[in-house]
Amino acid sequence: MRKNKSQQVNISAGCGHGYVSLEENSYVIYIQGGTFNEVDEMHDKDNSALMLDEAKKKWNERHSILLLKK
After folding, report:
1. Overall pTM surpassing 0.90 (yes/no)
2. In this structure, is residue 51 part of a structural domain?
3. Nearest-angstrom CA–CA distance, 34 and 19
């Protein structure tokens, strides 16, 4: 993207993404097709995933064991 040159980026549906503007006076227009429907978006893998605090605890347990083995 360049100053004074309008451009667009198309992100395919289902692709995780984010954006950041590094300059003041930037405009971002976000267009979304459809609406978010939690029932459609949630999958078995999502429903069985650990909550963040549980995942951190497991990660810490796993890595503390590795540190003790060294």
Report:
1. no
2. yes
3. 20
